[in-house]
Amino acid sequence: MKFNSQYFKTDILAGLVVFLIALPLCLGIALASGAPLFSGIISGVIGGIVVGFLSNSNLSVSGPAAGLTAIILAAIIGLGSFEALLVSIIIAGFIQLALGYAKAGTISNYFPSNVIEGMLAAIGIIIILTQLPHAIGYDVIHEREFFFIDKNGSSSHLISDIKDAVNFAHIGAIMVTVVSMAILISFNKIGFLQKLKLLPGALVAVVVGTLMNEFFIRTGSPFDISQEHLVNLPIPATLDDFLGQFATPDISAIGNLDVWIIGITIAVVASIETLLCIEAADQIDPLKRFTNTNTELKAQGIGNILSGLIGGLPMTSVIVRSSANVKSGGRTKVAAITHGVFLAGAVLAIPFILNKIPLASLAAVLIMVGYKLASPTVFKHMWDNGKFQFIPFLVTVVAVVATDLLKGVGIGLVVSVFFILKGNLKLAYFFKNEDHVEGQTVYIELAQEVSFLNKAAIKQTIIHLPENSKIVIDASKTVYIDFDVLQLIKDFIAIGAKDKNITVTLIGFRDAYKIENQTHVLSV
User: Fold this and answer.
1) How far is CA 394 from the centre of its chain?
2) What is the mean pLDDT of each run of 10 residues along the chain (524 residues)?
3) Per the database record, which ranges form the STAS domain (predicted)?
């Protein structure tokens, strides 16, 4: 793992913020899955430390997957024990490892950006809606990312839950939420607070919310928030109690066909969710780096194997935690690893302190994360990109909110492909040199119409260009360039070419594409 001291302090603080968000998520997902609460913590620790170390992603944060909640709940009931499920998780891990070596991760290159943007915006909306009950002290809906199942395993209708929440609102929780939101907004808007990089607003909001409730409790105020509305972390009394929270797989279940079917299902769903989240994390990376998705699948596979061996839930890359990581200043994998270390340290050293944190404060943090993902600016940006970008984007938003992540993205992809096929009947991309030698000039000739399906080939070409080389991108015959391909070229010119001292010559690009002249770029 490469260490970059430039971002060390901000990565540590980002890891702390992600830890505060991930802790109740780990517990809530375990509870909704019908699994031991500690299994969620195990998954979070492994996802942070092990997957964080092995992954090629600088920003992705892994942990227990909300998208697998229904599968896990049904599997525990069907298999008859949590220990049998652990065998399925191990099988899923080995399948993911095999997919990584088979280079199946390249499928992520074919997710168009309008669908990824739609997924992010939808997740932002869902985060806000699911956290509103917590924000006013009605904690029926557990923290999760994509869909809603209560602790008994039955479906929960989101709108009716929000209406019920209003009837059972708690004044103390509302006060904590309002103050926490005010702190978060202040840190985003006030200049001198924005410069306090060592003191993130989310951390201040959580600390202040906790102190407010402690004041309510100690003064006998009717506004005090009771324990059921606070973080609820198991507190073992002895070492044996702590070790007893780990579980081992029931190896005798290996011959059960259902165990294998569940393992395959977990592997497929977890891999797709991971690839979606990795692509989304790369999309919001301020440094515009690319993740090797095959390496990511291998890392996830090893993480799930280890999680299954010691009693954890299956994991994926999780966009809620990953986006919170970016927004909190995380820039390298140190942040993800740090969040895992904090999770492990917290359950060992200070569970009684963590259990004082109001869920209302955490809800305020998540609502701000959700707003940034689904702000009006995002919708305006997609509108300005034209109907071919906006319609698939909007369809994805609605579909994800109305169904779940995988179904919604699938619907968005169908709509996006329809528009691409309608406007791009001829797809082609040509380049003259296969072997790139330092100092050599590589010619890329774009066809009459270039779709996002060409993105993977162009991406691989520019990634593997050696330092001090030259590239000529000729769009003289091009009538249409897909937004994804155009953005890829822009990002390469802005960062990749400069970093590797590559001279880029652009030929025939129309003014509508707005690729500005920059250092190392020649326009003809």
Assistant:
1) 20
2) 74 90 82 84 96 94 82 89 96 96 82 82 82 76 39 48 67 92 86 62 86 93 87 78 88 95 91 88 88 94 97 92 87 94 88 85 84 89 86 92 80 86 52 56 79 76 81 83 85 82 84 55 47
3) 442-524
